[in-house]
Amino acid sequence: TSMKKVYLSLYLSLLATSMSFGQQSYSLSFDEVKSKVLEENLDLKTAEQLFKEAQGDFRQTNSLLMPSDSVSHTALTTTNPLMAFGFKLNQEQLTAADFNPDLLNNPEQIETFATRLEVVQPLINLDGFLARSAAKLKMEATELQALRAREYMELGVFQAFKQLELTYELVDVYQKAKETADAHYKLVSDYVNEGLAKENDRLMVAVRVSEMKSALAHAKRLLNNASDRIFLMMNMDPEGRVILPQGDSNTTVSGSEDQSIDTRKDIQAYAKATEAYQKMYQSSSLSLAPRLNAFANYEMYDTEAFQTSAKGYTIGAQLSWNVFDGFKSAGKIQKAKAQYLKAQFQEEAYLDQSKAELAAAERQRLDAKNQLELAELSLNQAKEAFRIVEDRFKEGLEKTSDLLLVETQFYQKQLAYQQALFNLELSNQLLYFLTR
Fold this sequence. Notes:
By secondary structure, the chain is an alpha+beta fold. The chain is built from ten helices and six strands, in the order H-E-H-H-E-H-H-E-H-H-E-H-E-E-H-H. The protein has helices at residues 2-21, 30-40, 42-60, 81-90, 101-105, 126-193, 199-233, 265-285, 328-394, 400-434, and strands at residues 24-29, 68-78, 110-124, 241-246, 291-302, 310-320. A hairpin with a 7-residue loop joins strand 5 (291-302) and strand 6 (310-320). Helix 1 runs parallel beside helix 7, helix 6 packs antiparallel against helix 8 (265-285) and helix 9 (328-394) runs antiparallel to helix 10 (400-434). The protein is elongated.
């Protein structure tokens, strides 16, 4: 029968609600959530490592300014006539007898141990210096991107925390709606028992009670989702808990009055990236330019390992350049130029997009402000209408269907007001982020 279906629906809704209530709460303030996210979020840790990666690339270019030093120890044995003579010469062991043609042409096996210290100092490397400048710009751009990622994450924390608060408001509204529906069901049941109302009225209110319990259970599932999102941002396992917002943290900001976006970190990062590609293009264009390096080595030879009976040094400078490399450099120049122009276009497109987003955010804030004012007015009107109809219903002057209608409108207006308040706070924060 229809009554059995209503009671079954009520039982299932109550079961879902009781399961949702069984979770443990985890109290956190907005500042605590933000602190944990900025410290533990995996996306931010990834952005930090990208910066360190670019930092490592830049540190490698120090080789253009600093000398490179190397030490080696080599052991050799040979019967090659030329090498055998050279080994003895390096060991400073040549005698007149060693110039005997038979010994020169058929030397005995000879061993030598050589210790070599070498230093190379770059002096002029035009393409390398430009590549170093490009690496520095890339590092700075990556650092700005990492800082912007933190600001974006702060916006995400604000959105998630406000969404959690809104969901709690949703749960509270449906909880009150359920309590009101329960009270109306008891009242109508008394009227039916007294013959002042029909069984159909009680069925209508019973359906209303079922709807509110089902809506309350759904709101609590949304609460779980909002809470899990924050746990994920904090890189924590929910462990069956829900976050309970605590404290009186001021999470609302006003939109910036300065509408300039030129100082935004992501805009600056794009500019530095474009400049880096320009430096790489210039570096490729100078890849055929001459290079000048100074070098020095100190060599020690002996017939035994790690001994230094004979010593000598060499100091010099080398000027070199590639005259033609089969169009390899020409291809690199063409590629670098294309990358530079592409970066220019991407920077310009991103700037245009950012300006459009800022204008849209400003319009969104104005709309949200108007919607909040309208929602507040509608809520007050619905509240008063519900009060009047409820009083008249208790006096038997209103139908059950009319009561349910104004009750539904009242709670809908409550939810609309909370959503409008959320939208305004979010639009303010978004505008602050876009002009930060």
